[in-house]
Structure formats: C-alpha cells, structure tokens
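Lecture notes, unit on protein representations.

Consider one protein chain, 140 amino acids long.
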Amino acid sequence: MYKLHMFAFTKRVTMELETVPALADLEAVPDSVQGGLPLRDAVPFEEHEAAVAEARERAAAEAAAEAERAAREAEERAQRELEEAYGSSMPDEIEQKVRAVIDREMGRVRDEMEGKYSEEHAQLRRQLEALRVPGEAAQA
C-alpha cells in the first residue's frame, strides 16, 4: 500500500543523463612538463619553501628599506620647510638683536669661567709652593 501511495501522491522526479567522454574535460599538459625539465632536476619541497621564504624576506627587507628612505626624505623635507618658514618669518632686525644678546651672554659666561679658572690655578700653584721643600727651590 505504501508503494502505491508514494506512486500516486508524490511528485515525480525525472532527470536526463548524458554521457561525456572522460578525455574531454582534461586540461592540456603544459609544455614545460611535456618536453621540459626531467624529474631528476626537480627541487625538493623543503628547498623550494626555503627559497620562497628567502625571497619573501628579501622583498620585505627591500620594502622596509624603501619605507625608511621615504620617511627620512619626508622628515628632511618637513625640516627644510620648517626652517624656510621660520627663517622668512623672523625679521633681520630681531635676529641681529638675538645674536647680540647671545654673544653678550656668551662673553660674560666665558669671562666668568676664565676668572674661576685663573683663581683655581693660582690657588693650586700656592698649594704646590707650600708643599715644596725649601731646599728644592734653590736646586730648581
């Protein structure tokens, strides 16, 4: 009864079947395999992977060097632009006044340091003279 029910009340599915020769779907063998390299000249997989990894590392190093060079050029360009903008924004009169103040301060600091040096030098000479034996001074 079940088979009759299935036959009477279910949708019939029909399919068409077509046979195709198996060789029709095959791709053509590349010329490099047909008459090219013999199998004895093949590279082992590990060596191939090592060569590919080395090529990737070289490419990454070159890319990093190129990026570093580009960053350095951009930084130099920005520095030049900043110097040009700063140089053109400060009038010569102000620059001369700033240089004069700096020169004056440097002279004052230099004089102060020379004074300290001469004082220390004189003190060291006095200490050296005090350490000398009175008989040595006559021999020297």
